[in-house]
Amino acid sequence: MGRTSHITPPELGSNKTAEDTVSIDVDESSIICVRLREDVYDILSLKEDTSEDGSLSFHLSRQSATDVPESLLDRFLVKEAPEHLRAADTRQVHLVVSTRSGTGLALDFYHSVLQPLLGEFGLSAAASGGDDGKSSSLLHLVTTQDAQSIQDFAANLTPGVEHTLVLLSGDGGIVESLNGKATVDDDDDDNTGGPGEPSRPRRSLPLIAMLPLGTGNALFNSLHKDVYAVYSGNSSAGSAAAAPSPLVLGLRTLLRGRRAPLPSFRVDFSPGSQQISYRGATDAAIAAVEEQLRPVTHLYGAIVASYGFHAQLVWESDTPEYRKHGAKRFGMVAAELLKESHAYDARVDRNIIPLSSVQQQPIERQRHAYVLATLVSNLERTFTISPASRPLDGRLRLVHFGPVGGERTMEIMTRAYDDGKHVGMTWTTVAADGGEGGKQEGVGYEQVGEVRVETREEDARWRKVCIDGAIVELPPGGSMTVRTESVPHLDILVDLSVVAAAAASI
Ligand SMILES: Nc1ncnc2c1ncn2[C@@H]1O[C@H](COP(=O)(O)OP(=O)(O)OP(=O)(O)O)[C@@H](O)[C@H]1O
């Protein structure tokens, strides 16, 4: 149970009615916002219930009171719908429901929580096939039909108006929006004014608001890391109060958040690289799923580009066979991979900042277990792969280590779950690790400007790379090169404290 607030009854003799004079205990951790309706406050909160069979359900709860402590009003009062949610002739607001994200709860969340919450602010949404309604005050409801839906949607946003995309999804919704939008930017010379024309005003970028309904929700969890830290007592303003759930935080940010550019990177692949997806992947027809390979030259990401154990885990746990096992699939696949402990044969070059902004240096290791470049701190809420990464810092960091065997790999991963304590780990190699014995090694952790991974594997199984969850198979001798983008393609809505902290660190 979180910190509770006693909502005090009005004083005797006031003109409030008896119905108003209620005293309520509110679990602060579940509060989304407080609304003032005439002279009564409505406290809107999110109830999340887990049934006996483990399924999760949500509903929006409203409690009314005539008086609310200042401290709650400071943090939760929302007088009117924020501008980014108000559709107008100059702004379209899209509610994008990704039906396959996480455990498939996004549509239920929309109907049970988001739709009534927006209704409290006088906002309503309608699905539309064409342009009808898009330029009115109605919000636009988009429900995914397949794995291309979000990317296609983001690539076809009406030009000349502002866009807000409220994504009810996991990281996939963000990376698909990014790739849809960035592809349009690639074709649009005017977008940024170009390197030689810095004075041209930047066009308003589509604004992404995240409601974390995926599995890992790496970007959401990384951007809200400091907000969680306040509740765990892990910050200067530490307190022992219960933390709000990710969905409560997402809704608070939706109503009170601020816009900031989303840092991203581009990954270029050598010719012959192919992106893997599954066609016909419905839950009922999992056995009928076909693996599809399509040529890919480059992708954009905002989270992670990896080779080795991480990419293998994401890919092998996403096959139809393993998907049958639900969330347990990650653990099952990790156990198998750790038993095999494959030593990936690759050349990895990077330029370490601040040592060199241009010169590439190879990692002096023939074989690798883990090579992961990231812009974020956390791949899951408690899995801190890059502890030095700050929200929105735009710095690419590389985590890498050699083939150290299943047991040590497990130990490294376990320490990452302990607030990123894998960084700084060292050990002495033994010949059985797949390299020379007696060498001092450790977890490599560097800020880099660019990373290039060239695989020397013959077997296609070991030639998979992962870009924010998308899997690409490199050809024999193929490579990927990761570079940060110098201009943003999207803005993202974040907690006010994140914008303030990012500005202070410049
Ligand atoms: N109706 C649909 N049919 C097929 N694929 C879909 C459909 N709706 C969404 N998808 C796809 O499902 C994937 C869901 O990925 P998403 O990242 O949102 O969730 P997740 O993988 O559970 O979470 P995370 O990436 O945060 O761990 C996306 O690639 C999306 O394109």
TrEMBL record:
Region (Disordered): 1-20, 178-205
DAGKc domain ranges (all copies): 88-224
SUPFAM superfamilies given in the database record: NAD kinase/diacylglycerol kinase-like (SSF111331)
Name recorded for this polypeptide: ATP-NAD kinase-like domain-containing protein
Originating species: Apiospora saccharicola
Organism taxonomic ancestry: Eukaryota, Fungi, Dikarya, Ascomycota, Pezizomycotina
